[in-house]
Amino acid sequence: MALRRATFRLYPTKKVNDLLHYHRRLHKELYNAAVSNRITSYRRFSKSVSYFEQQNCLPDFKEVWTEYKKINSQALQATLKRVDLAFQRFFQGLGRYPKFKSIRRYSGWSYPSFTGWKCHSTGDNGYLELAKIGSIQMRGKAKLWGHLKALDIVHRNGKWYASIVSNVDDELLRNSRKTDDGVIAIDLGCNDAIAWTNGQENGLIPAPRFFRKAEQKIKRLSKGKRRKRSPNYKKKQKASRRWKKVQSQISKVYRQVANQRQNWVHQITTRIVSSNSTVVTEKLEVKNMSAKANKGKRKKQKSGLNKSILDVGMGMLKQSLKAKLDDVSGVFSQAPTKKIKPSQTCPKCGHQEKKSLDQRLHICSNCNYTQQRDIAASEVMLLWYSNQLPGFGTNLAGADDSSSTSRTRKTAGSMKQLGQKKRQKSYSTGGDVETPPETL
Ligand SMILES: [Zn+2]
C-alpha cells in the first residue's frame, strides 16, 4: 500500500461557493484564536498550551461559537493541528513565529480521515460531497486511485481545488511504472541541468530556464505596478483595482513558471527511471547552496547563481527521482561530494585537480583524458558506485543511500566556488527550549 495524492479542480455553484468561503473563514478564525490562545497563555501565565489541551477545549468552544457546530469536528481538529505544527516548526528553528492569518493567506482546510465527505469518482472527474456544504462537480484525473483516506480543500488564485489522498494497492502501483536494470550516474548543474552517463553512453540535458525566460515579463509588469496605488494597511488604504489587476497578472506568470518546472521535472525523472533502476548522484544541499549571501560585493552574483540553481529545481528533481525509484524498489545512491570530489577528479586515472566554475572541459594533466566537465563528474560518480574509482578503496563506508535532506538551515556552501569566503549568520536550531519571541 502506498499513499498517493491527486488534485482536482472544483466547480461549485454560486450557493456552494459562498458556503465554501464561509467555512474557510471560520477555519481561519479558529486558527487565529488558537494562536492567540497560545500567546496569551504564555504571556500571562507563562504556560505553554499543547495541542491536546486545545483539542479538548473544542466542545466548549462550540457551545459559545455555535456556528462551529456545523463544521466537521475532525476538520476543526486538523486546523488546530496546523497551529501546533506551525509552533513546532518555530521551536525547531525551521520557521518564523506563527502569525495571525488574514483570509487571503489562509488557503483552506483538511479532512484528516474519511468522514464528513464523500467522493463519487473513479479517479476521473466526478462529484465531491461535503457535509453541510453540498455537492460539487470536480474535474481532473488521478494517475493512481485507491481507497480514499483524506481530503484537503484548497482555495488558490480564486479557484477551488480538492486534493485527495488515497491508498493505492501494491499491484496497481507495480504496474504503473516500468523500469529496466540500467545504472546511471547524473550530475546536476545550472548550465546543463543534467549530465549523465551509464558507462557506455553519456549526454547532456540543457536547463530549461523557465524563470529566466519569464523574468522580463515580470519586470515589465512590476514596473507598471509601481505606478499604481498599492495597499497600505497601516494607513487603511486599499489597493486600486488597476494595482490588483497587475498583481494577479504577475502571480499568474509565477504560477505558470512553477507549473512548467514541475511538469519538466516529472517528464525528465520518468524518462530516467523508465530505463534505470539505479541512479547515482552527488549529495547536494540545495538549501545551503542557495542560501542568501548577506553582504559583500558578490551578493548580486550569488543571487544570480541561486536563481539558476532554483530554476533547474534540483531539489525537486532529486525528490521526484527518489520517489519514483521507491515505487520500483530501485536504488537511489548519493556519492559523498566532499570525499570523492566528482568535479575535480579524473575518471580515468583518479588524479585530482581544481577547476574554476567557468572551465567547462575536463582535461587531465596526468593522463590527458578529455571530456565535458559535468559528464566527467558523472563518470566519477558511476565509478565510485561500482567501486572502480582509481585511488579509492571501498566506498560503502562513505555511502549515503538515504536522501535525508538536512532539516536545519546552514551557511551557504557554494560561495567558496565563487572565490569568496564569508562567514554567514547561522540560524539557531535550539530545539526544545520554548522561548517566546520578544517582539510580537
Ligand atoms: Zn587522468
Task: Report on the architecture of this protein.
The protein has two domains: 171 residues, no CATH class; 171 residues, no CATH class. Helix content is 39%, strand content 20%. The strands form three sheets. Strands 2-6-7-1-5-4-3 form a seven-stranded antiparallel beta sheet. With 440 residues, it is an alpha+beta fold. Bound molecules: zinc ion. Zinc ion binds next to loops.
Keyword list:
440 residues, alpha+beta, 2 domains, 7-stranded antiparallel sheet, 5-stranded mixed sheet, 11 helices, 14 strands, globular, disordered C terminus, binds zinc ion
Structural class: alpha+beta
- The total domain count is 2
Helix and strand string, N-terminal first? EHHHEEEEEEHEEEHHEHHHEHEEH
Bound molecules: zinc ion
Please summarize the sheet with the most strands.
7 strands, antiparallel
Weakly predicted, low-confidence segments: 394-440
CA distance, first residue to last residue? 45 Å
Shape assignment = globular
CA gyration radius, whole angstroms: 26 Å
Strand content: 15-25%
Q: Helical amount among residues, as a percent range?
A: 25-40%
Number of helices: 11
Strand order of the largest sheet: 2-6-7-1-5-4-3
Q: Total strand count, please?
A: 14
Write the topology of this structure:
Elements lengths: L1 E10 L2 H32 L5 H14 L8 H19 L16 E4 L5 E4 L3 E7 L3 E8 L5 E10 L2 E10 L1 H7 L5 E7 L3 E6 L4 E5 L3 H17 L14 H35 E7 L3 H4 L9 H14 L1 H14 L3 E5 L1 H4 L20 E3 L6 E3 H13 L55
Helix pairs in contact: 1-3, 2-3, 5-6, 6-9
Bound molecules: zinc ion.
